[in-house]
Write a sequence for this structure.
């Protein structure tokens, strides 16, 4: 019988944040792997990710089905490597970028969030004329501003 030893990081990667989301979905990064960056969150960041999952991502999943996180938690070094803002909520575990297949899906999610959920910030991000992702954040501490912006004209 093979003896397998798990590290604390192995446990954390497999940690369930909410019914349908695991920590690994928010910490994995091709850039971090390529550059050898340790993208392990602190306990406060994990708690913030749990709040984001419970208050925003689980309701979105219930309404739209499986959601793929393209960017979640980022340590400072990773955030710098990907050109993120120095004040990015990704640094605090408060934000996630969600893959959307089309502008129609992005707008349906956008309208659902606006009409049904508490959130801090939501951005529809476009690249080369196509929808890239829906960035959404939630603060467990302090007021959620319900700030919306887009580099796409929302109708």
């Amino acid at each position: 019988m093979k003896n397998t030893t798990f590290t604390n990081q192995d446990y954390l990667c497999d940690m369930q944040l909410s019914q349908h989301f695991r920590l690994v979905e928010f910490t994995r990064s091709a850039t971090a792997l390529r550059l050898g960056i340790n993208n392990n969150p602190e306990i406060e960041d994990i708690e913030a990710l749990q709040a984001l999952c419970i208050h925003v991502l689980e309701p979105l999943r219930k309404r739209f089905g499986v959601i793929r996180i393209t960017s979640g938690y980022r340590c400072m070094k990773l955030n710098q490597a990907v050109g993120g803002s120095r004040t990015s909520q990704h640094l605090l575990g408060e934000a996630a970028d969600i893959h959307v297949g089309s502008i129609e899906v992005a707008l349906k999610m956008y309208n659902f969030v606006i009409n049904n959920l508490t959130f801090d910030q939501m951005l529809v991000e476009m690249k080369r004329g196509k929808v890239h992702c829906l960035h959404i954040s939630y603060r467990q501490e302090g007021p959620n501003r319900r700030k919306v912006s887009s580099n796409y004209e929302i109708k």
